[in-house]
Amino acid sequence: MLARYIVARYGGHHVLWDLIAEANFAGDGAEYWRQVGRAVFPEPPYPPLTLHPYGMNWPFDAFAGEPWLTVLGYQSAHGDDETFLRWIPEGPPSTAWRHAPARPIINLEPPYEGHIAYHSQRPFDDFAVRRASYWSVLASPPAGVCYGAHGVWSWSEGTEAPMAHTDTGVPLAWREALDMPGSAQMTVLVDALNTLPWWLLRPAPEIIVTQPGRDDARRTVVADRVEDGTAAIVYIPMEQTITLRLAGLPTPVRGTWISPRDGAHHNAGWPRRARPGSSGHPAMATGSSCCAVNTSRRCARGSLIRHVWRSLFPWWLQRRTRPHVRCPVACAAVLL
Questions:
Q1: Three-state SS for 62?
Q2: DSSP labels, 134-170
Q3: SS3 for 113-143, per residue?
Q4: Residue 155 region by backbone torsions, left for phi larger than 0, else alpha for psi between -120 and 50, else beta
Q5: What is the CA radius of gyration of the chain?
Q6: How far is CA 209 from CA 204, 245, 279, 281, in A?
Q7: Rounded distance, CA 328 to CA 291, Å?
Q8: Half-sphere exposure (CA, 13 Å, Cβ side) for 316?
């Protein structure tokens, strides 16, 4: 009864529902939560609804036939060793989008800014948070990512580590944590994707001729493109030279370097036309960079709210209601 009341109370708002966080989704646990999902959300229309697994856990094969599970939300968690760094760009988030039924895939808990890393025992800085965010958004067809600030999630006063999470470190007071640099840098991610028809982007590792992440996971480059080649985006986390495969893209190819740290834009300076038969073109990234490539003169600027509304809600529900959503300057959740 309580669950039904909560759904009725908040169901009229634009909410991403989380049925349960960090539960046992294996064996009998999966069957238990399948039954709970059916009981709480027994019939369509199903809202945006997900689970919140433990870190680096992908339980969704056991829920493939559940129509109420409309979003695949995962937790890449707070590690920084080789295994953790490879899990987003090489693990289930990078492959599950090909499986039917198609569902949005969102990292609900990437590293929190200021949180102590499991392995290095150093706090995650804005660079580490940015890298995980861009990896998360581009490893799957873009659907969104969550940003976490150590101190905000626990409503900390900044005097001691959160209860039952003493190994995470003493955070800033939550009012101060609101202004950590990574939060404002989430707007750069949104703005970069809004220069492209992001809802048509699909992971395109074939754009990258030589993947620097093979030797060093910290340097992993991720790329998405529109299937017809009219637009692409490449995220390069560290200063390095990579070669991009431009063959198959309509010419002239035009690109813009975007600094994920401050949003500064610079012309990519590529030749107006790639040589016929050329396998690629070298691109030098200074610091953390992403490059938005638009090969068409028509660059579709879409409304994030409009397109997430269209993708997550049935057309007949849209006819009944209209979205009225305000996104703060520093979004806690970036829904694309």
A1: helix
A2: HHHHHHSSS-EEE--BTTTTTT--SSSPPTT-GGG--
A3: ECCECCCCCCECCHHHHHHHHHHHHHHCCCC
A4: left
A5: 20
A6: 11, 6, 8, 9
A7: 25
A8: 3
Query: What pLDDT, on the 0 to 100 scale, is given for residue 295?
Result: 54
Q: Spell out, as residue ranges, where the chain has pLDDT lower than 50.
A: 271-279, 296-336
- Look at residue 318 in the predicted model and tell me its pLDDT: 34
Written as one letter, the residue type at 124 is F
Cβ-Cβ contacts under 8 Å for 275 (sequence gap 6 or more): none
How far CA 45 is from CA of 41, 252, 313, in Å, comes to: 9, 45, 8
Strands (E), 15-78: 17-21, 49-52, 72-74
Edge-to-edge strand ranges of the sheet holding 144-146: 72-74, 105-107, 144-146, 333-335
Instruction: Give CA–CA dist 125/150, Å, rounded.
Output: 11
C-alpha 50/C-alpha 83 separation (Å) is 25
CA distances from 259 to 17, 134, 236, 334 (A): 33, 12, 10, 18
pLDDT per position as a tens digit, 224-255: 999 988 899 999 999 888 888 877 777 777 88
Global pTM? 0.84
pLDDT for the residue 313: 33
Q: What is the rounded distance in angstroms from the CA atom of residue 231 to the CA atom of residue 302? A: 14
Tokens of 322: 């209209």
Q: Report H helices in 153-312.
A: 174-177, 181-194, 304-312
